[in-house]
Specification:
single chain; binds zinc ion; eight-stranded parallel β-barrel
Length: 271
């Protein structure tokens, strides 16, 4: 099995004045001996367009794999125009900004429609998002759609919903992020999740390898360290091996704790 980068989510790594916070993401990666970082390019709860980063050149030029996570507020599936239209705009801005830092992909949650809506409308909104962008030459970095933990009428919480979404967006080259905490929260069988997803999407581009503080099927999204959550650690390592893809840890913990998790993963996935 090829060695894939193992990274850690480090957030924006910027001060409010758009300066590097404590050296920024590349310093965090060095502290943890990580091969990669996942960053936000702005406030994950905000609608502002990302600003050019002071470390853009360093991120692009370095050998640390960079993944960008889109803001959580973004929901391109919704039938609410006042959310969907700015979401599309924000997604485009983040894709541009992700390219500027040399990101290998832009992670975006599958989103949802309101309880009274037909989920098919959300799927069609996703299709339109990709179709419009394809007319403009496509996204400048791969868009990686992530499964989510809960919510009714979600586009990528349940496998049957994911299958309907992929029928609409697969042809545009959409990528997939498997989040193990979210999959557990949604009641997926993690022993078969990699095969189940691949049967639908044909691909897993990235794994968010997270444990969960809650029991299976809880719909709750509370990440736990790889060792010490409700998901057996061996099951998580099995997912990491089976996925055969880059990994980003979104686990709680300090640099030393993340360095330990990376070492554990490296030994579990090598050879
Ligand atoms: Zn995630």
């Amino acid at each position: 099995m090829a060695a894939h980068p193992i990274g850690v989510h480090v957030g924006p790594g910027l001060t409010e004045d758009n300066e590097l916070l404590d050296g920024g993401p590349l310093v965090r990666a060095a502290e943890m001996d990580a091969d990669g970082v996942q960053v936000f390019l702005g406030d994950p709860q905000g609608w502002k367009a990302p600003k050019p980063r002071p470390d853009a050149d360093a991120l692009r030029a370095g050998d640390v794999t960079v993944v960008v996570h889109a803001p959580y507020v973004l929901n391109v599936a919704t039938t609410n125009n006042r959310i969907r239209i700015p979401s599309r705009k924000l997604l485009g801005q983040h894709a541009q900004a992700a390219a500027a830092v040399g990101a290998v992909g832009l992670v975006v949650h599958g989103g949802h429609v309101l309880a009274a809506d037909d989920p098919a409308a959300g799927v069609d909104n996703w299709r339109k998002t990709f179709a419009r962008q394809a007319e403009a030459g496509g996204f400048p970095v791969p868009l990686l759609v992530e499964n989510t933990a809960g919510g009714g009428n979600a586009m990528a919480r349940d496998l049957d919903a994911l299958a309907r979404l992929w029928e609409a967006v697969g042809e545009f080259g959409a990528g997939f992020v498997l989040d193990t905490c979210h999959a557990w929260a949604a009641g997926w069988d993690l022993a078969t999740a990699v095969d189940d997803v691949r049967a639908i999407t044909g691909r897993i581009d990235l794994v968010h390898l997270n444990n969960s503080r809650d029991p299976a099927g809880s719909s709750r999204d509370r990440h736990a360290p790889l060792v010490g959550g409700e998901i057996p650690t061996e099951l998580l390592l099995d997912v990491a091996r089976a996925a055969d893809a880059p990994i980003v840890l979104e686990t709680p913990g300090d640099a030393a704790a993340h360095a330990q998790e990376i070492a554990l993963l490296r030994s579990a996935t090598s050879g």
